[in-house]
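Take a minute with the sequence and fold tokens given here and flag any structure token that looks odd. Thanks in advance.
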Amino acid sequence: MFSTGQVIFIFVFVALFAAALVWAYRSDRTDDRKHYRGVWKILIAVVLILGTMTYILRLLRKI
């Protein structure tokens, strides 16, 4: 199905791509902690707002 050269290319590409992802994640990890410190509060607020809207819409459909 694939030639030997294509298989070698796939393995090398995947290995280098994974290495680049790990390197980028490690270099950004310290900046992410500094800049995205309170993101969990925003996530909780969004979930609560969506839950409240869903609850209100279900109540209004029953009326």
